[in-house]
Amino acid sequence: MYSNCTCIPDGKASAGFCKTDCAMIYPWAIVNFLSSVAGAMKIMPNRIIMIRCVKDTDKATAIGLSAFLGSALGWALSPIFYGKMVDTTCLIWQSSCEGHGACEFYDIEDFRLKFHTFGFVFKMLALFTSLFSLWKVWNWKHWESDCESNNEKINHSIPEKQTIMSNDKELEEHS
């Protein structure tokens, strides 16, 4: 217990965090859990769509490029953006002769709002791109003609295979 503190009204302080009555912890946990489940549920449909929309010869390249971009944008850039966002919520910076160092005190209300808003914005951006893709697919009118033309290309590009039976029949007809 600390006493004779001039900065606080009672003049007494104790070590540790302030006691709070956070009534929003359970709704936050439920929304966070459901958001995580929804995010995980779109992984396989997105992978299947990617595999079905790419030519057979380009599937490995598409998967590799997708993994590379996911790593480069998700794992390399997000710490930079989130770190900059966290730095904007700092109230007291540690200072020394070399300049300022680590943050000593954060504005937790500003931190909370910015942290959740940042995540929400990126999740909504991903949702809207997925919904736009779904809308484009639903409005695609030429499914059957595209499939038929692809099948015709495939059928015409593969030479007919001759079996031993067909050669025997040809020999019988010519004799």
TrEMBL record:
<dbReference type="GO" id="GO:0016323">
    <property type="term" value="C:basolateral plasma membrane"/>
</dbReference>
<protein>
    <submittedName>
        <fullName>Uncharacterized protein</fullName>
    </submittedName>
</protein>
<feature type="transmembrane region" description="Helical">
    <location>
        <begin position="62"/>
        <end position="82"/>
    </location>
</feature>
<feature type="transmembrane region" description="Helical">
    <location>
        <begin position="23"/>
        <end position="41"/>
    </location>
</feature>
<dbReference type="InterPro" id="IPR004156">
    <property type="entry name" value="OATP"/>
</dbReference>
<feature type="transmembrane region" description="Helical">
    <location>
        <begin position="115"/>
        <end position="135"/>
    </location>
</feature>
<dbReference type="InterPro" id="IPR036259">
    <property type="entry name" value="MFS_trans_sf"/>
</dbReference>
<dbReference type="Pfam" id="PF03137">
    <property type="entry name" value="OATP"/>
</dbReference>
<keyword id="KW-0812">Transmembrane</keyword>
<keyword id="KW-1133">Transmembrane helix</keyword>
<dbReference type="GO" id="GO:0015347">
    <property type="term" value="F:sodium-independent organic anion transmembrane transporter activity"/>
</dbReference>
<keyword id="KW-0472">Membrane</keyword>
<dbReference type="GO" id="GO:0043252">
    <property type="term" value="P:sodium-independent organic anion transport"/>
</dbReference>
<keyword id="KW-1015">Disulfide bond</keyword>
